[in-house]
Design brief:
This protein is mainly alpha-helical. The protein has one domain. Helices cover about 70% and strands about 0% of the residues. Strands 1-2 form a two-stranded antiparallel sheet. α9 packs across α12. The longest helix has 29 residues.
Length: about 350
């Protein structure tokens, strides 16, 4: 266990990466039993999704919290910032994109145009849209930093996410137009509230102090929003048959629930002295796990699909796939760091 309060964010990253793997593992398991759709299996997994839909929002909040707060007064300030942040993000991303294309995506057939467009839109692998979102937010960071002293500008940044979600609902329910993945989650406006709130929380201690003093309220808000997330998810599935939105991280209740969880964390970190070492380590390895976990998860899926007693119970399948994937990714990262060193592992592989 660690007694360093600053490790609270590493532990929070650890919790978030577990949720990331669990979200993708929730697509495993058997929804059809003996040729018939199992609504019980699906609805149990749908309810479970509501408990872990905070993953991307938490990572983006943490990224905003650790954004630099220095003034950007010269072009050199911008260039130094972009070089440092973007190379650390994009070099491992490009490595994994080319690795996946070379060894796992023969369907590309060296179509250079498709390879290029999929890389810049994060479509080489489903979860990689997050890199594109974070790249947009990093580019906008200097403009956000300059806004923190303006109440009007701050309100604008904070309002972009709820407004974007409401627009997507309006398009869906009024015009019957659903924006499909990954385009629905790729615009920065869908996530920018969490990033900007991270910047505000870093620069205004009163936010954390308030969350600490009223931690009972943040707990109540989180539990209430989680309840509404479950209700909305089941409603979207049972009544509207909107399977994708029902489990989504960007439906209204999920956005609210993620925000309330962040408020709870800000209060909790001021009172917790010791954070579980396993969460801190997973937080440190989170980027590497994120970049590599889908390849491992696909292998785990092939194995569990052959064990009928596991495959028939969706939640059990999700649990086994999540734990196994995290353990294997952790082992790979640990061994890689030992062999080629931490610096090279982090710089080029994201490990």
């Amino acid at each position: 266990m660690s007694n360093n309060k600053d490790l609270s964010f590493q532990a929070f990253r650890g919790i978030a990466i577990i949720a990331v793997v669990a979200i993708h593992a929730s697509n495993t398991g058997k929804l059809f039993i003996n040729g018939e759709f199992s609504s019980l299996n699906y609805e149990l997994s749908l309810v479970f999704r509501q408990f872990i839909n905070y993953a991307v929002a938490v990572f983006i909040f943490i990224s905003g919290f650790f954004a630099p707060t220095n003034d950007f007064s010269t072009i050199s300030d911008y260039l130094v910032f972009y070089k440092k942040r973007l190379t650390r993000l994009l070099i491992p991303y490009l490595f994994w994109c080319f690795f996946i294309i070379l060894f796992f995506k023969s369907s590309y057939n060296w179509n250079l145009f498709k390879i290029f467009t999929d890389i810049i839109t994060g479509r080489v692998q489903g979860p990689y849209y997050f890199i594109i979102v974070l790249t947009q937010l990093i580019i906008l960071t200097p403009f956000m930093i300059s806004s923190i002293r303006s109440r009007a500008k701050s309100i604008l940044w904070l309002s972009l996410t709820p407004l974007s979600v409401l627009v997507s609902y309006f398009l869906l329910f009024y015009f019957k137009h659903e924006i499909n993945f990954p385009w629905n989650v790729m615009p920065f406006s869908i996530w920018v509230t969490f990033y900007y709130f991270g910047i505000l929380a870093r620069n205004n201690q009163k936010i954390s102090d308030f969350c600490y003093k009223r931690i009972d309220i943040t707990i109540f808000l989180y539990i209430t929003s989680l309840f509404f997330s479950i209700v909305e998810g089941l409603d979207l599935w049972r009544i509207w048959k909107l399977e994708s939105l029902a489990g989504s991280q960007i439906k209204i209740s999920s956005i609210l629930c993620s925000f309330c969880l962040i408020l709870f964390f800000l209060g909790l970190r001021k009172s917790v002295e010791y954070w579980p070492k396993v969460l801190v380590i997973l937080g440190e390895f989170s980027f590497g796990i994120y970049l590599s976990h889908m390849l491992v998860l696909e292998l785990i899926n092939k194995l569990t699909s052959k064990i009928q007693i596991i495959y028939n119970f969706n939640l059990l399948c999700i649990f086994i796939a999540t734990i196994s994937t995290i353990f294997i990714c952790y082992t790979i990262i640990y061994i890689t760091r030992k062999i080629i060193g931490i610096d090279i592992s982090q710089r080029y592989l994201g490990f």
